[in-house]
Specification:
Keywords: Aminotransferase, Pyridoxal phosphate, Transferase. Helix content is 35%, strand content 18%. By secondary structure, it is of the alpha/beta class. The protein has 2 domains: 9-68 and 348-463, Aspartate Aminotransferase, domain 1 (Alpha-Beta Complex); 75-345, Aspartate Aminotransferase, domain 2 (3-Layer(aba) Sandwich). The chain has a 7-stranded mixed β-sheet, with helices on both faces. It has a 5-stranded mixed β-sheet with strand order 1-2-3-16-15. The longest helix is centred in the last third of the chain and has 22 residues, at 349-370. It starts with 8 loop residues before the first helix and ends with a helix. The model has no long low-confidence stretch (mean pLDDT 96).
Length: 464
């Protein structure tokens, strides 16, 4: 095991400049000294010393299709040579065709007509969805959201994100959320199956509508004070918590009874992360709004957007100018998005992701049997979780996971004579969960390599 890594002289010059000139408000340094990276390809990134790191988080699931994916990169290069930019008030072919692709897919899957609206990223698209929802509900600014939910750090998005620390210094600017428990079975009441706990959580939510004195419902007018329920079908920053399959179907029944819209936040889990285009597809419900971003362009361009039911977003109710961004629906982003859809339609992409996810999960389950500090593993497609706990296999152990992350970034682990680092992401309610979001193009040998590197980190953590 190596000692604390020291930055090279060249890197230290850059870090000194960063300390003086860069805002820390948009940066989190998870390790010291921070790494400076110089290139990337496939499942790997390299630092300025040309040390390779296997990346198992892929920019928070933005780079679903691998770093420097040649096909997607070439689509961007081609667009640069034809129509690299055009003002968002003008039309171009890419915007129309990408909207059609998403809307037709939603019609086929959910049986609903709808329209697509673009913006420059996930948080901005959450803000647009809040406008759609508030407009449809005559200006209601109260929303339901989940404990453990994360929807972004703009003012509106942070108001429906359960972490108070994201809004502590800024207060609320319109939206407020009532945070409802998520069926996190591993940390739920004992004695219930996963499905029973899912039903229990729905029943506790439904109780809010039993009487006006529970604070959300007026039985005389048959109206709810809340406009929508914002859900991440699989919790992202909350620790890749996967609910029981009955949960959303039962929850949607309650929402429909009381005229509450369901907004599915697919920013982290969309574009085949879970083996389907949208993670909500696993749960046999019809969302009213879908918010997407990140992997639409494989991280090459900050393009996101929403799909919403026709009744919520047609031009009569949501007219031109309802929202605007200079760079919305930009042709570089839509070109990559179109190529991504073409690429994933040429093979059974969902089946491929599910098979790789099953293989990876089996490897994690094997590690769980051998290392008692792994309290829980779970996965859906290539959205996988590994919860690090104390010796009892339950008490959250953030310190041990922080140690593993730092060790992985030293770049000093040996596998078959090759020196490697491992990039992991930390999530979960107690910041003790490894949230694994590898490239969907990851090979089976790379999955094996990732498991070997994880095993080395676990050995270090349990023998230090």
């Amino acid at each position: 095991m190596s000692d604390i890594r020291i930055a090279t002289a060249e890197d230290q010059v850059l870090l000194d400049k960063e300390a003086k000139y860069c805002s820390y408000g948009d940066t989190v340094h998870y390790i010291e000294p921070p790494r400076i990276f110089s290139r990337c390809e496939g499942s790997y990134v390299w630092d300025t010393e040309d040390q390779a790191y296997l990346d198992l988080q892929m920019w928070y699931s933005a780079v679903n299709f691998g770093y420097a994916n040649p096909r997607l990169n070439n689509a961007l290069k081609k667009q640069i040579d034809t129509l690299p930019q055009i003002a968002s008030q003008y039309l171009h072919k890419g915007k129309i065709e990408l909207s059609e692709m998403i809307a037709v897919d939603a019609k086929n899957k959910f049986g609903l007509d709808g329209r697509v609206h673009f913006n420059v990223g996930g948080s901005q698209s959450i803000e647009d969805s809040l406008k759609v929802v508030r407009n449809a509900s005559n200006g209601k600014s109260l929303m339901f959201a989940f404990e453990g939910g994360y929807h972004g750090r703009t003012l509106g998005a942070s108001s429906i994100t359960s972490s108070f620390r994201y809004r502590r210094r800024y207060g609320h600017f319109g939206e407020r959320a009532n945070f409802i428990p998520f069926p996190y079975h591993f940390r739920g009441p004992k004695g219930m199956t996963k499905e029973e706990y899912g039903s229990h959580c729905v029943q506790q939510f439904a109780r809010l509508f039993e009487t006006e004195y529970n604070g959300v419902w007026d039985p005389k007018t048959n109206q709810c004070e809340y406009a929508a329920f914002y859900v991440e079908p699989i919790q992202g920053t909350g620790g890749y918590v996967i609910p029981p399959m009955n949960f959303y179907r039962e929850l949607k029944h309650v929402l429909d009874q009381h005229g509450i819209l369901m907004v599915s936040d697919e920013i982290q889990m969309g574009f085949y992360r879970t083996g389907k285009l949208w993670s909500i597809e696993h749960f046999d419900v019809q969302p009213d709004v879908i918010v997407f971003g990140k992997a639409l362009t494989n991280g090459l361009n900050p393009l996101g957007g929403i799909w919403a039911r026709e009744e919520l977003i047609n031009p009569k109710v949501f007219p031109p100018g309802s929202t605007h961004s200079t760079f919305a629906s930009n042709p570089l982003g839509t070109a990559v998005g179109l190529e991504m859809f073409k690429m994933t339609s040429e093979v059974d992409y969902g089946a491929m992701v599910m098979a790789k996810g099953k293989y990876f999960l089996e490897g994690l389950q094997d590690l769980q049997k051998r290392f008692p500090i792994i309290g829980d593993v779970d996965g859906l497609g290539l959205a996988l979780r590994c919860e690090i706990c104390g010796p009892d296999g339950f008490t959250p152990d953030k310190a041990t996971l922080d140690y593993m992350v730092e060790e992985g970034m030293k770049g000093d682990m040996l596998v078959d004579g090759q020196k490697l680092g491992l990039i992991l992401d930390v999530g979960g309610y107690h910041k003790n969960v490894i949230t694994l979001a590898p490239s969907l193009e990851i090979s089976y040998p790379e999955i094996d390599l990732g498991l070997k590197l994880l095993e080395q980190l676990l050995v270090r953590a349990t023998t230090r």
